[in-house]
Amino acid sequence: MTPQDMELRIVRYGDLKPCKTAFIDAHTPGSDQKENFTIIGGGVSESADQHVHITIPHGFNIGAAGQPPRCRNSLHDHRTAEAFFVLSGRWRFFWGRYGDAGEVVLEKGDIFNIPTGIFRGFENIGTDYGMIMAILGGDDAGGGVMWAPQVIEDAANHGLVLAETGKLYDSKKGEGLPDGVAPMPMMDTDELAKRGEPTTAQVLPNHVARYWDLVALSDRSPLQVIGETGQLRDKPGFEVNFITRGSASENGNRFAYPSVLMPVTGHWKITWEGGSATLAPGDTMSVPEGLSYGAKPSMTGDAALYQIVGTSDPAGLTWMG
After folding, report:
1. 115: Cα separation from own chain's centroid
2. Of 207, 236, 256, which closes a domain?
3. 3-state helix, strand, coil in the chain (%, to 5)
4. Into how many domains does the chain fold?
5. Angle, CA 39 vertex, CA 37 and CA 224 arms, to 5°
6. pLDDT tens, position by position, 64-105
7. What range defines the domain where residue 287 resides?
8. 210: pLDDT strictly greater than 90
9. What is the pLDDT of residues 10-60, one digit of tens each?
């Protein structure tokens, strides 16, 4: 594969195109400054303005959320896996019907494989603009987002209505629901009762991994972080591996499914038969199935990257330990 072909599969951090109207809370005070990025796959954006950087199906989606300090992403749920790692900033994740069942604070490089079946939200509690990178199960990302009822009510009070088709309509732009199209129904009492309320103590051991622990554990060989035998045991339709300077290899990476490389720290030289490329933190590289490649840090200092690999497992519910 030529360098020109592979360059089409690399999304540079500086080239990311944000959407500020991606979701139903885009006008709600406290959530109206967030930016959504869809890097690989269609994601779960509800806006026609969302730019998709790479449309090639991978069996999973890669996205990102960028937010200034104290900006919040409202309570929602997905039908398939949702995992985040922190690229920059300091983030508080919270969950439960009203967001008060539990919480965890994540720093750069930490990863959170969020259980399905619970409402979850997050906010940047740092002092600068922050970015978190997202992995969503399935090519269709589970068919969209399910919002807590109060989020839908707040959005309507600020001019945004979500149709039953999953499309947003903005009354501030003179838009309204088309004839014959009803608003997205809110969850009834029975559906809400199915949503979990796990405590922080129940979630942390099986769903959160800390960057510096992963660095220590991957000093000699790549570490499976999310997977059937991973630090966070799960089979969500993809695996997540962690590679550092000590466990990097110039060859031997070849998979039957597409893989994605996402540096957290350091600059990485990726080589394959026919070319090479250098990745920096925030860059995303898609590698086609069957292509052998190597990944090694190209400079001194800390160097770590996440490697996401598709699997034959269906993109289903996240295992809740």
Report:
1. 13
2. 207
3. 15, 40, 45
4. 2
5. 115
6. 999 999 999 999 998 889 999 999 999 999 999 999 999 999
7. 211-310
8. yes
9. 999 999 999 998 889 999 999 999 999 999 998 777 777 889 999 999 999
The answer to whether residue 2 is domain-embedded is no
Q: What is the CATH number of the domain that holds 264?
A: 2.60.120.10
Q: What is the dihedral of CA 70, 71, 76, 82, to 10 degrees?
A: -90
User: What would you report as the CA-atom Rg of the chain, rounded to the nearest whole angstrom?
Assistant: 19
* Six token digits for residue 111: 């990863």
Task: Assess if residue 142 is contained within a domain.
Answer: yes
pLDDT on residue 43? 75
pTM of the model: 0.94
User: Is residue 108 assigned to a domain?
Assistant: yes
* Longest alpha-carbon distance in the chain: 61
CA distance 21 to 150: 19
Residue-level pLDDT at 219: 95
Domain assignment present for residue 1? The answer is no
